[in-house]
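quick q for whoever's on today - can somebody do inverse folding on this one?? i tried earlier but teh output was garbage lol. tokens:
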């Protein structure tokens, strides 16, 4: 059988570079191709799972084929005390200034800090994001904004609705369908149309009770569809709570930081450091391998979304690489990577 690539015809340096680029391409291109189609239900549901699997499986497959243990990548707990100490030190040095930089960036994008009661109480992720257009005219769609503390009710068939909260509600859009007051603890609206219509409310409350009537009868919960997945409502109350923070911590640690660090610092930087051994200046490791890895890391974030600002991840990537080279472990870069992402998510809730 003819080899796809005749590796024997290349010198060691060229083989390593080609190998890194091929594995990088195999991990990134499928996700970049699928990303524009994330509006399709099943694509949106599985695209990030696919990215995580590729980032973990491909490097693991490489080490398996080479007969090398995963500890070669730095996936171990040796020198864990040093890893934890460096993580805490780097976090103390870089995360506080991030507050100022993040504020400048949000201000540049026209967003401002808003004082909202209990800002860290948010609607669950299962409710956040606009669903596809209504397919069944009797359905009522209820979903939350991805960023702002807002709830949207969308419907077609005539309905009479009452929303009661333990705080304050304010109508932001669709006021023509609202009866009586546009803000308060209780909001009522009614109407219907052959086209989808909606009422959007700013929510400064922990719980909002939904009560819908149609033709004098209570609308069954199976016709009240929640979030982008349009799951039938299990209760007549939607709530803001702190559980999303736990979800963010788990997701950023296990589904973002770990697989990305395993691919970029565990596999890629390890291979490139074999070509370009790092030099230590004032205790800080510097290498061409870290520079190349960080360029590819930034390029990945750019092609998945095609936004120039995403190239800024080049700079924290350099720190992730230095932590890996300093400790010869992935513990510190995984923890700092996850911490930085979580910190940004906690800052974002103040801006809309």
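ok took a stab at it. sequence:
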């Amino acid at each position: 059988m003819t080899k796809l690539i005749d590796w024997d015809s290349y010198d060691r340096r060229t083989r390593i570079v080609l190998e890194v680029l091929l594995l990088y391409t195999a991990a990134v291109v499928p996700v970049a191709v699928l990303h524009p189609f994330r509006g399709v239900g099943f694509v949106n549901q599985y695209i990030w799972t696919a990215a995580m699997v590729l980032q973990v499986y491909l490097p693991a497959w490489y080490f398996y084929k080479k007969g090398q243990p995963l500890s070669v990548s730095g996936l171990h707990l040796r020198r864990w005390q040093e890893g934890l100490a460096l993580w805490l030190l780097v976090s103390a040095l870089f995360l506080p200034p991030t507050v100022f930089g993040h504020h400048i960036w949000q201000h540049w994008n026209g967003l401002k800090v808003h004082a909202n009661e209990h800002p860290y109480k948010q609607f669950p992720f299962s409710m956040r994001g606009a669903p596809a257009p209504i397919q069944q005219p009797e359905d009522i769609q209820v979903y939350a904004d991805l960023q702002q503390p807002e709830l949207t009710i969308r419907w077609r068939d005539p309905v009479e609705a009452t929303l009661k909260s333990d705080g304050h509600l304010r109508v932001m859009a669709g006021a023509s369908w609202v009866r009586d007051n546009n803000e308060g603890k209780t909001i009522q609206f009614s109407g219907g149309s052959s086209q989808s219509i909606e009422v959007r409310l700013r929510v400064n409350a922990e719980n909002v009770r939904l009560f819908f009537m149609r033709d004098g009868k209570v609308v069954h919960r199976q016709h009240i569809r929640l979030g982008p997945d349009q799951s039938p409502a299990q209760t007549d109350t939607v709530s803001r709570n702190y559980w999303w923070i736990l979800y963010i911590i788990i997701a950023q640690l296990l589904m973002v930081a770990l697989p990305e660090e395993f691919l970029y610092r565990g596999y890629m930087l390890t291979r490139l450091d074999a070509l370009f051994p790092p030099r230590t200046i004032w205790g800080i490791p510097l290498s061409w391998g870290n520079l190349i890895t960080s360029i590819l890391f930034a390029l990945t974030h750019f092609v998945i979304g095609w936004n120039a600002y995403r190239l800024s991840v080049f700079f924290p990537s350099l720190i992730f690489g230095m932590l890996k080279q300093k400790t010869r472990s992935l513990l510190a870069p995984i923890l700092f990577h996850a911490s930085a992402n979580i910190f940004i998510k906690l800052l974002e809730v103040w801006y809309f």
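fwiw DSSP finds seven helices and 13 strands in the chain. also The longest strand covers residues 159-173. so keep that in mind when u check it
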